[in-house]
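We now fix the convention by which a protein and its fold are recorded. The integers have meaning only within a learned vocabulary of local backbone shapes. The record below shows the convention in full.
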Amino acid sequence: MPETAAFFKIINAGGAQDRLVGVTSSDVTEGISLGSHRMTAGGAAYRWPTESLSIPAGGTLDMSPHSSDVTVPAAARWAEGDLVPFTLHFEHSGRMEVLAVVVRPGS
């Protein structure tokens, strides 16, 4: 099954560091993973899976193709503009329900 990436901007307004430790979705039964990205000197990007992503106290985790993402098996039924529900699971803050908007790659 083809994969796609979901990107979230997470703001930690608290006074202590937290970690995003998992992501689930009622629209995706399995295969969701967290990943970090690095650019090579030649301009190519590579991704590797990670168990968690840190959000500093009073800081932001701003996912992008150049930093980190949530990799998701792409559902054939998703169309541009659809809302996909996700639950973000944090080490200290518990769960947060969010929606991601389906966009065309590169937009």
